[in-house]
Amino acid sequence: MSTDRTGTLDADHRQIEDDLLARRYFEKLRLIARTLPAVLAESVRDGLFSRSETEIIESYLRAMLNSVEALSMKYLVSGRVEGPLRRFLTIDVHESGYPVWLEIGQMAADAAQAENHLARSPDTEAIKDDMIRQIVGDLTIPKRLQYAMSQRLYYEALATGGLFWPQMHPQGYWLSDARNRRRWLIHWAVYDSQLNMPVLYLMECDDSGRRPLVEDSRRWPEVQAHLMAQSVTTLQLVTIAQGFDRDFDRLHPHRLRRVLLGPIYSQQFTTQEGPIKEVLDNARAPAGEDWAVALTVEDLQAERAEMESSGFFGVTERQIFRLDPLGLGGAGQGASAVERALILPARPYQSLAELDPEGFRRMRKYVPLPDGRVAGYR
């Protein structure tokens, strides 16, 4: 049993109370995070992302991996101590396979106090000396000192930075200049509190303002605040894009994508239902290969622009967005198209190919190979 953010019991959440099991969980997250860059390289050949976009996405993956490393230190021995220091990692076993939002939110709160915590606590060398004295002098396992060491390393990771936070504020990536306009790729991310997983946003936007957007001290903070406020997965992309287009007359969004990095499926750590459960059960893969990761890319593109009256004498440009006319996942989700992919090792992929469930036939499949490359299939 586990608790959610309000402290109530939630059957979809699980506390990992075994230290060795927690280490295996973190190792699985590391393995997946290290596999995804090769998947992104293959996705460039498939036309799913550009090279510049994969560089941006990889930066978020590195941040997520850094967060995994920090959490692994936080919970390294916390289950061995008694009293209020005894804590366990909580993960979402049903919706995402990732740590619950509270873990990332608490890590952000801890980061704000990291420098003070480090200044008040002994350094690693002092803790090591105390551990040796207890082992040699008392002939006992220094559990409290092991815990102190793990927390020291946790706060050092937080102080170093570069982690994935609940909100990763918008950044602008310059693409080109043309006809007195600058084209930006604005990107940002959140750790979604409903899905308990990292969600990335990519917006291609023309800027017809006098000053470059990211150098404009008036517009840029407003843009950042607006986009963060709209970054919830319950909002359709067309709602986000139309609201942005309406609120910023000199910014013209041409394309908006939302990338869901999950869920993660694993026989050992998550609860599967439907075809994916059958695929993993049938694969009978060893511990390092009994997983799969879903990747969803919602894509909204502008079809054309129309001029609209603004005030008494002015006109402004408004984007008309194209929705999927066939209703194949796009129109119902306020998007032009929705692309889904599945990343899975060879044994689960063989199982998937044998079972051939209908719901997976249109998905891209990416299979990591022993030499570090990734094979793509349709």
Would you mind describing this structure in some detail?
The structure is a single chain. With 378 residues, the protein is α+β, with helices and mostly antiparallel strands. The protein folds into two domains: 13-160, no CATH class; 167-377, no CATH class. The chain has ten helices and eleven strands. It has helices at 19-45, 51-74, 101-112, 114-120, 124-138, 143-160, 219-229, 237-247, 275-283, 346-355; strands at 13-16, 89-92, 167-178, 181-192, 197-207, 251-266, 291-310, 314-322, 337-343, 364-368, 374-377. Strands 3, 4, 5, 6, 7, 8, 9, 10 and 11 form a nine-stranded mixed beta sheet that branches. Strands 1-2 form a two-stranded antiparallel ribbon. Strand 9, helix 10 (346-355) and strand 10 form a beta-alpha-beta unit. Helix 5 (124-138) packs antiparallel against helix 6. The two termini are 39 Å apart. Mean pLDDT is 90; it is low at 1-9.
What is this entry, summarized?
It contains ten helices and eleven strands.
Itemize the secondary structure elements and their pairings:
Layout: E1 13-16, H1 19-45, H2 51-74, E2 89-92, H3 101-112, H4 114-120, H5 124-138, H6 143-160, E3 167-178, E4 181-192, E5 197-207, H7 219-229, H8 237-247, E6 251-266, H9 275-283, E7 291-310, E8 314-322, E9 337-343, H10 346-355, E10 364-368, E11 374-377
Parallel strand pairs: 9-10
Antiparallel strand pairs: 1-2, 3-4, 4-5, 5-6, 6-7, 7-8, 7-9, 10-11
Features:
single chain, globular, alpha+beta, nine-stranded mixed beta sheet, about 375 residues
**How many beta-strand segments?**
11
Question: Unreliable segments (pLDDT under 50, ≥5 consecutive)?
Answer: 1-9
> Can you give the mean pLDDT?
90
Described by the principal axes of the CA atoms, the overall outline is globular
Count of folded domains: 2
Approximate helicity band: 25-40%
Report the biggest beta sheet as strand number plus sense, adding barrel if it closes. 9 strands, mixed
State the helix count: 10
**Rg to the nearest angstrom?**
23 Å
Kindly report how far apart the N and C termini lie. 39 Å
Give the SSE order as H and E letters.
Answer: EHHEHHHHEEEHHEHEEEHEE
Report the portion of residues in β strands: 25-35%
SS class: alpha+beta
